[in-house]
Description:
230 residues, mainly alpha, 2 domains
Amino acid sequence: xxxxxxxxxxxxxxxxxxxxxxxxxxxxxxxxxVAFENLFASPLEQRKQAWLEQxxxxxxxxxxxxxxxxxxxxxxxxxxxxxxMQASQVALRxxxxxxxxxxxxxxxxxxxxxxxxxxxxxxxxxxxxxxxPWHLRVLAVxxxxxxxxxxxxxxxxxxxxxxxxxxxxxxxxxxxxQREIYEQIVRDLQSDSLMGxxxxxxxxxxxxxxxxxxxxxxxxxxxxxxxAPV
Length: 230
C-alpha cells in the first residue's frame, strides 16, 4: 500500500514551531480567565493568528538568509525562544500595525547572526511595548531626516534655515501644530536614552543643522533592531 505523503512545507514547519513557542505563554486561570475569554476571545484569537502568520514569515525568511538554520534549530535557542515569547505577549496587547511590524522585525533580527546582547533585546522589546507609534516615527525621522523623506517619497523643501520642528512637522503631518505633543515625545525618547539631550526643536539653525541626526548610539541600535534588515 502506498504511504500517504508526510513532507511538510517550510511554511508549515515554521508555523508549527511558532505556534509551539506561543503556546508556552501562560494564561490566566479561574473566573478571571472565563470572563476574559467570554469578552475578548474572538479579537484575541484574530490577533494570535495574525501574529503566528508573521512568525511563520520570519522563520521562513531566516531559512532563506542563513544556510542550515532551520526553525527546529531556532526552537532550541533559549535566547531566541525568550525573545519570541516576550514579543508574542507584546503583540497580543497591541493592535497598531507599526508596533506589530517592529515586533516582527525584532524577532527576525534576534534570529540572524550578531544580534544585540540578550539583555538589550529584552529592553528593546519593552520599549516597543511602552512607546506609541508616534514615538517610533519621530525617532526614525530625526535619526536621518533626509533618508526618511527619500524612503517615504516626501519632497525635501530645501530649507535654507529653520528649526528641527519644521522638519518634524513636514515629515509627520499628523503632528503639525501639535507642539506640546511632539515636545513630550522628544522628552520621552531622551528619557530612554534614544535621543540626544538638549533643546533643539525650536532653535533656528542652518539647513545642515536641521538635517543632523539626533539619535544616540542606543537609539540607532534600537532602530536597527526594529527595522527590516537590508
